[in-house]
Design goal:
- The chain has 47 residues and is of the alpha+beta class.
- Helix content is 30%, strand content 21%.
- The protein has a two-stranded antiparallel ribbon.
- Bound molecules: zinc ion (ZN).
- Zinc ion (ZN) binds next to loops.
């Protein structure tokens, strides 16, 4: 029972999931908006 959830908002992932690479690690998010949030957080955190 491996239920995947969005790495940004914890919303359950469906077929519209997006894979985004953050700091060498690939995570999945529910939408492009969440993908962008993670990218910005990554950019801000490891500048
Ligand atoms: Zn999300």
């Amino acid at each position: 029972m491996a239920t995947s959830t969005c790495a940004a908002c914890d919303y359950p992932l469906d077929d519209n999931r997006i894979s985004v690479k953050i700091g060498g690690k690939t995570v999945e998010v529910c939408c492009e908006e969440c993908a962008q949030k993670l990218r910005e957080a990554q950019a801000a955190g490891n500048g």
